Amino acid sequence: xxxxxxxxxxxxxxxxxxxxxxxxxxxxxxxxxxxxxxxxxxxxxxxxxxxxxxxxxxxxxxxxxxxxxxxxxxxxxxxxxxxxxxxxxxxxxxxxxxxxxxxxxxxxxxxxxxxxx
Amino acid sequence: xxxxxxxxxxxxxxxxxxxxxxxxxxxxxxxxxxxxxxxxxxxxxxxxxxxxxxxxxxxxxxxxxxxxxxxxxxxxxxxxxxxxxxxxxxxxxxxxxxxxxxxxxxxxxx
Lengths: 117, 110
Description:
The complex is a heterodimer of chains A (about 120) and B (about 110).
Chain A: E1 3-7, E2 11-12, E3 18-25, E4 33-39, E5 46-52, E6 57-59, E7 67-72, E8 77-82, E9 91-98, E10 104-107, E11 111-115
Parallel strand pairs in A: 2-11
Antiparallel strand pairs in A: 1-3, 3-8, 4-5, 4-9, 5-6, 7-8, 9-10, 9-11
Chain B: E1 9-12, E2 18-23, E3 35-40, E4 47-50, E5 64-69, E6 72-77, E7 86-93, E8 99-101, E9 105-109
Parallel strand pairs in B: 1-9
Antiparallel strand pairs in B: 2-6, 3-4, 3-7, 5-6, 7-8, 7-9
């Protein structure tokens, strides 16, 4: 059974860079698309971007200028960097696997990132 | 890209059926059969309930069904049960090779 686990700092200062890693277990990271999705408290889901194991990416246009995603197949991990964060970036961040059916079939448990000084 | 439009809330009594709509554009919902639906209980990660408009992953009860007409997709839950009370989100692949979610619908089982 594929499992995903997010990790990274729970507190980031305004204007700094948010960095998160998703570790995939129970299966290979290869030959799949992987996504980051976030959810501010009490609000809906927002798709951030996706990365293929080749390194090709697509990002949400509203975040594109601040987002960088990368993948490390040797560690079965992929990562998210979001620069110049503000309080509006405070959210639970989820990593997820994109299936061939274009649905998000596997999700991490989510990690809360708070942007505050 | 704009979020897909869902009703903020719906409700129904146990045993009844409810339908949640999800309206997009020809660049997302109307253009692709890549609409999916997610159930989210408080404090939990979303769970895929429907993919490719109307397909259920293994383990999802057949009380859950999906459909699409034009730019609007729908999720129907029949034979409502107490455990169906949750937030539901639709999502669609888009012509820009991105994904967009709906704003979410809170289902209350009366």
